[in-house]
């Protein structure tokens, strides 16, 4: 992509309305633009990040056996009357009346819709288990939308819903999602820690929040420090085998959000030197709630003995749009964002220090072609801005590697390379610099 043909309206100054660094940087780097309170447009650079996050979530869901569908954003109130949640959900639900005076709503979650799909199409235990997910916009009329996409009113969620014949099967499904979440967040360069959680309006008695530590997190968290070094399941993990060992390893040490924190237990179970108190961002939340929705909505399948059985359910959410902000909270410096390669909007920034100079233009065009041929996503600053402005834009948008090309280097057959994370610059012979950057990108594409 050539910057001269792109749409990147970066802001030089920090917008006053943004309280936390990810919100400030997302606005400054022209990733998002607010449209109304808690409602954002995604500009090209932000959309590329959102799609990368979505892609990782999708791959890990598929690996763990979940099947993608797409449910509507607008739902019928009657479905929610069946589950008894229509009145209970309160003011967070955006209620809509259509032209025929029918009560509709913008879905804040989709347990009812998916249970109706299941009820109308699955008849036999032989069709179980099933785990259906979608990546779809949700709306919650949050009383205080804030922190940009971290607590929006409209936000993108991956929500999966599982149906199992027995409690044991449901527990195995829960464990599969648990393990998939560990991989999902690690692949984005995040350290997530599952913590026992309150189930709120979704219900049930077993749930874990997946929390990443960041100073600006909304909740205070308490955990054993070893959890920060625990191993994430590898790509070749058998997701259909027994995953209880993985879950056991991740849940046997103390970890709790302030909602359910028990100070006495924390002090008893965790030696003082191992106690970590920090702030966290909830990037995922998984629930096992048994037959709460299947029973209320009359979803049944025929069991092996011919008797009707009400399936056991769970639901599993990932805050896809929230993750864009959460990753920035975890990875930035004073100059801007530092994208981990797997979620970077582009992998390499190519900076032409003298656009219009024939030799420099030709050298850049050649590098661009070679990077693209090697399958690297390149963002080429071919504008006639001054060098200083180009450097600060590149640092702000946080592409993992920069290739800097000026007339002097072209004459001596050299390029400068810079890794955004460490900030170190190095001058290498052009071909060596090119190969170095290609190898570095390839090495960092898969983090687990
Ligand atoms: N139905 C269940 C699981 S699919 C559910 O809705 N769970 S949830 O309420 O915990 O939401 C799932 C995830 O969505 C949260 O972990 C969080 O990462 C994200 N999320 C929730 N509310 C918001 C919001 N207002 N803005 C951005 N992300 C949000």
User: How many individual β-strands?
Assistant: 23
The whole-angstrom Rg is 24 Å
Q: Supply the number of helical segments.
A: 14
What fraction strand? 25-35%
**Chemical compounds bound to the protein:** 5'-O-(N-(L-cysteinyl)-sulfamoyl)adenosine
Describe the structure.
The protein has 448 residues and is α+β, with helices and mostly antiparallel strands. The chain folds into 2 domains: 3-337, BirA Bifunctional Protein, domain 2 (2-Layer Sandwich); 346-444, Anticodon-binding domain (Rossmann fold), CATH 3.40.50. It has 14 helices and 23 strands. It has helices at residues 21-28, 44-63, 77-83, 85-88, 111-121, 167-187, 244-251, 263-269, 292-296, 320-330, 358-373, 387-397, 407-412, 430-444, and strands at 32-36, 39-42, 67-68, 74-76, 94-97, 103-106, 130-139, 154-164, 192-196, 206-213, 219-224, 255-257, 275-290, 301-302, 308-309, 312-319, 332-333, 336-337, 348-352, 378-381, 401-405, 414-419, 425-429. Helix 11 (358-373) links the parallel strand 19 and strand 20 (378-381). The longest helix is centred in the middle third of the chain and has 21 residues, at 167-187. The model has no long low-confidence stretch (mean pLDDT 96). 5'-O-(N-(L-cysteinyl)-sulfamoyl)adenosine binds next to strand 8, strand 13, strand 16 and helix 10. 5'-O-(N-(L-cysteinyl)-sulfamoyl)adenosine (5CA) binds at residues 109, 140, 142, 151-152, 155, 157, 159, 202, 282-285, 287, 315-317, 319, 321-322.
